[in-house]
Amino acid sequence: MKNVILLATALVVGLLSYGQSANRLFKKGVKAAAQGHYEQAITIFTQVIQQHPDLAEVWYNRALSASKLKQYRAAIEDYSKAIELKPAFPTAYLNRGADKNETGDREGAVADYTKAIALRPAYGFAYYNRGIIFFQAKEYEKAMNDFSKAIEMEPAQAEAWYNRGMTKCKQEDYAGAIIDFDRTLQLNPAYQKAYKNRGIAKSNLRQYAEAIQDYRKSLLLNPDDCQALNLLAIAGAHATAGKDVLNDVGRAKELGCPVPALLPGESYARLHEQEKQHKDTLRR
Q1: pTM for the full model?
Q2: Over the stretch 200-225, which tens digit does the pLDDT of each residue have?
Q3: Residue 104 phi/psi, 5° resolution?
């Protein structure tokens, strides 16, 4: 599972108190960043900083552009300067936390997300990002709490529902996970991994026929997903799906998927037997 760290990317656009020239230059930098011209934006924001080094918003926006270029350490320095100039700056803490996570400083990331929440208690993105860190650290109860808070604050955020579902799977609450994956797919019907992981949850509850449907929907969105193909074959073996299982295994082999390694003993033995019977039928 690849987790998505959400960034607050709102650009601050007001500098009227610093004169027309600085305001025009700043807006030019904002426009460049909005158009994806991040190096140009950094150059422009640097010019504004040289004229007015006490503007937190300019340091913040230069940090955003640096982050987009994956210059995370430079971005962290600029966010830190923005926070120094404006201590009550929750989005700067959120984004600095995301960049600290990118550099491997997860403890620092958690501290920044926690500070963002202290400044803005209803900050759903901060709860979500901190939940991702806890999930990666296998602190599933903390992750569950944060994803639940993120859902409370941002109920239309499909990623929060999905990751809470994944957390429930880790806690073996498969029925609860299915509910969260259902909601994920209501919000984003093209969420391929939600179909696949809902299938896994259903397989763990031995709801193999329903799991097969989810794996097939997952494969419609990503036909080359080896894991989904193998999971489909396993569910098919348990559900005695006959020739369909053989087709799924054949497709997996075509893609070079390590089918035997991913099929458990009992299911693979049954699969082998079905394959043998199918070949005998073809010879007659």
Answers
A1: 0.81
A2: 999 999 999 999 999 999 999 999 89
A3: 90, 0
Distances (CA, A) of 16 to 20, 29, 83, 91: 7, 15, 21, 22
Tracing tokens 């990331």 back to the chain, one arrives at 109
Q: Please provide the distance, in angstroms rounded to a whole number, between the alpha carbons at the two ends of the chain.
A: 45
Return all residues near 203 (Cβ < 8 A) that are at least 6 apart: 211, 231, 234, 235, 238
DSSP state of 159: H
Query: How many Å apart are CA 75 and CA 85, to the nearest integer?
Result: 15
Asked if 158 and 142 count as a contact pair (C-beta separation under 8 A), the reply is no
Q: State which amino acid sits at residue 98.
A: A
Classify the C-alpha dihedral 239-240-243-248 as positive or negative: positive
Structure token digits, residue 275: 């394959």
Torsion angle of alpha carbons 144, 150, 151, 154, nearest 10°?
-170
Find where tokens 């957390």 sit: 167
For residue 166, what are its two tokens? 């994944």
Residues of the chain with pLDDT under 70: 1-19, 240-284
